[in-house]
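Components:
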Amino acid sequence: MTRDEKLERIRLKKLRELKKRMHEEPKGRPKARGVVTLNSSNFDDFIKNSTVPVLVDFWAEWCMPCLMMGPVLEELARDYAGKALFARLNVDENSEIARRYNIMSIPFFMIFDGGRSVESVRGAVGRGPLERALRKYVGI
Amino acid sequence: MNREQLRELYKRYAERKGFILNPDKKTVDMLLDGMLLREKKYRRRYCPCRVVSGNRETDRKVICPCAYHLLEIEEMGRCWCGLFVKSIDVMVKKVFTPEEMEKWEEIWAKIDGKIK
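Structure:
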């Protein structure tokens, strides 16, 4: 096995572990199928290590427009499984990440590709605009 | 202050300004709870649909009732988070078209002084 192959194996293993850990949702919060919960300790690793585009939903528990977009994200996660990763980040608990991207209002969606932010969609816009933005990066 | 006291406060405020509190009690309860929690955390009742940036001047604009709500209600019939609505028939739980989102952004930019 070459050095590159070894590194790739380690990277994939790390990503698998990270995903597994992040699917363990905190108690009392509705579990969103196919959607990973990010926080300030795993955000950078998750974005950097993903081999597919990542759609991140910046939200808060008390934000009505955010809650409206929850099912849309789950729908996309189901329909684009394997082609993209889907994640949520609570801005109340991780405000430093939201500040980093200059996010002022929520819901706010950001697509990361190759570890960097490539596109954003603001507001409770339904499935259409989110999917259109995502399709530019999933190679369909 | 508890949720009911806060509801009463915003209800009276809305009446004074010529609009109303969202008739959907469940949504209002959630928003009020969010504000009370944020008040506990930050000592200010920040809008639950805005990010607290840590910049005092920026954050002052998002203390409920926020700097944007009057123009939002006038132009969109509701404020962004849906606490206040212009009238009882305004549909709050709806998604926005790209054109409507542009309008929201325009309102925010106007208030932020980015456009005239």
